[in-house]
Amino acid sequence: MDLFNESLVVVGRVFTILPLLLIVTLFMGKRSIGELPVFDFMIILTLGSVTGADIAEPNVHHIPIAVAIVALCVLQRLVSQWSIVSRRFGKMVTFEPTVVFYNGKFLVHQLKKMRYSLDNVLQMLREKDIFDLAEIEMAIIEANGRLTVLKKSAQQPVTRQDLQVQTASTGISLPVIVEGKIYPDALKYRERDEEWLLQELKKRGVAVEDVFLATLNRQNELLLFEKQPNNLQQIPPVQH
């Protein structure tokens, strides 16, 4: 009889805790299940452990477990908001993007620092249908562990190679302003300085504090994205 009662308790907890987990996951947002930054990964592991203990052990009190799940959800939401408000805090709770291949060479010290083997990177390249390293100009391991690749201009789509059109590579566009903050290192890399940047902004009638993102490519072409509190542009209704 005790076994039957305990089984009923477990079944009841499954039917109550899983809907709560669904609500919590939806509240935390797509970011948690799509990118899995370090902190979100820890939250999900903890949620799994807490939920497992609640379901598997009938002697554990049910209400405190539910409170713990809600508390974890609120903590994750707060950390996510702080990461958006403060870039410095955001960098503290996640990894930085790391360049692992540049200008025809693997950056071995970067791979060792991340404890990535060459086989790991080659597999990730093959998953992107890249089997010839000569096609690559730059490869970056992003904060979520995924690999992004910048191909050489001759290997990029739009049939430039087929049309035998010789074009110089635009390279990677470096962010020179992020949320109103100027990045002097990026300007220096492009052989420009802050005075030049301010002059370009003045020509366009834009103040630094009004810039959400500004990038500079190899041809020193400045691309600006201004802050827009109320974006009136219609967004396509993308649905799953």
From TrEMBL:
<protein>
    <submittedName>
        <fullName>DUF421 domain-containing protein</fullName>
    </submittedName>
</protein>
<comment type="similarity">
    <text>Belongs to the UPF0702 family.</text>
</comment>
<keyword id="KW-0472">Membrane</keyword>
<dbReference type="Pfam" id="PF04239">
    <property type="entry name" value="DUF421"/>
</dbReference>
<feature type="domain" description="YetF C-terminal">
    <location>
        <begin position="86"/>
        <end position="216"/>
    </location>
</feature>
<keyword id="KW-1003">Cell membrane</keyword>
<feature type="transmembrane region" description="Helical">
    <location>
        <begin position="12"/>
        <end position="29"/>
    </location>
</feature>
<dbReference type="GO" id="GO:0005886">
    <property type="term" value="C:plasma membrane"/>
</dbReference>
<dbReference type="InterPro" id="IPR007353">
    <property type="entry name" value="DUF421"/>
</dbReference>
<keyword id="KW-0812">Transmembrane</keyword>
<keyword id="KW-1133">Transmembrane helix</keyword>
<dbReference type="InterPro" id="IPR023090">
    <property type="entry name" value="UPF0702_alpha/beta_dom_sf"/>
</dbReference>
